[in-house]
Request: fold
Amino acid sequence: MAAYRPGVLIGNWKEDACLEEDRLRDFMHKREQGELLIQKINKLQDNLLKKIQLSVSKDGFVHFGDTVMLLNPDNKSSVENYPGVCGSLTLAINVDEISMYSAKSLQAPCGVSAVKSVDPVGRNSFCILSVDGGAVGEPIRFGQYFGLGTTGGFSDQMLYLASDHKSFIGFAKKSYLQQVFLTNELSYLTCWQATFLDPQLRLEYEGFPVPANSKMIITHCHTNRSLAVPRNFWTRSYFGKEYEVICHTYLDSHKAEEDKNYWEIVTGNPSDEDGTMIHRPNPQPRRDQKE
Reply:
């Protein structure tokens, strides 16, 4: 059999060359438009993990318009029952791998989860929104309705924390309780209120400003169930192992909420632009220099 030299063109060589040129041209166009898969993933990841500066509370209260973190503080019961889940957790956007690979920005509805990171970034920073006409800068009060919105580090969108009654098709994936999610529409499903921690003093504190960086209960107004992190249900996301967030009121034998329902609205550290009040050291008592 006669062998062809390397320079001989055989078969559908013209069609193959044109097809390769079209592929290269399509690749160059997508790269210029930022539509390559690696570009989408990097943009979404950079925005979600972008450092966010939290609002600083000058009077010690939480105000409408403040950028804050929602922190579920460390508790003894989680250490005793679930040793691997100790530490404080923050409420964050939960992005699955399919969304990371297919979307340029956050798509509603979107899930939420609790993460171990307590550094303010795009995915765990929220803005306190007014739903009843309260002006920006006014302190929110116990029993007053408010919304929780997040941009996820993007500048052209806002998603709102919401919940709804459990149904046959709408429930938490792991615990099968009332789910919590993010939506792009403000409605009665996105209204929340802060409740004083001690049940015996709630009526007395009704209408008082909500202090920042202190424990409280955050209740969903429509279902009257409290935001909670059970800590025994975990989910897998693009960023790794995270914990399920639900709406369910856990009561002890004294009819008081358990620490699964405890939350702190964390504000920025005035002495450190990139820090939070949970990173601020506690003041140490000064020793009397006089002998």
The mean pLDDT is 84.
